[in-house]
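Check the record.
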Amino acid sequence: MAARYDQILDAAPKFSTREYPNVDVNEVALEAGVATSTAHRYFPSSAHLLLALYRRQLLELRARVDDRAATARTDQQRARNLAGAAVEMFAMRLAQPAVNSCLSELVVPVEHELTALVGEVDELSWSILGRLAGDNERGRSIVHIIAGLVSAVRTGRLMPFEAERQLKTACEIVASRRAMRG
């Protein structure tokens, strides 16, 4: 059972480069070689699929961040690690328009079945950056900066390299404030 779930998620990145409304669970199932009924059992909608894909990617990023956090000895190393992780998260969202749109445009009522998954993805993203920034509130702030920068790049108001530079600057500010509080 878990193998089919993984097969579907393995096929999903190819479709995440589309716009959100153009992601179809049936197409992903076909690409994965899994029956559409099985795919819909795991992922009733494209939002379920895209959020699960992003959760998986965030868990992989968290493993890399945990390794970096364990070896960082100075504030400067922590600041570099924070900027690196933030740029990775920015790049993931920028490279996957469907995931980014799902994260920034999906409106989920409190009692909806997706609420827990959205909350888990949000908390995971904040905690990953919070691990390097000093706390989850700082991590949350950086995630909001990432969302704004991705939007600015996608609408043509900012070039990706400029967005990365601004993100690194924001991470330096957060890291320096953490060092001052020390």
About this structure: The chain has a mean pLDDT of 92. The first helix runs from residue 2 to 16.
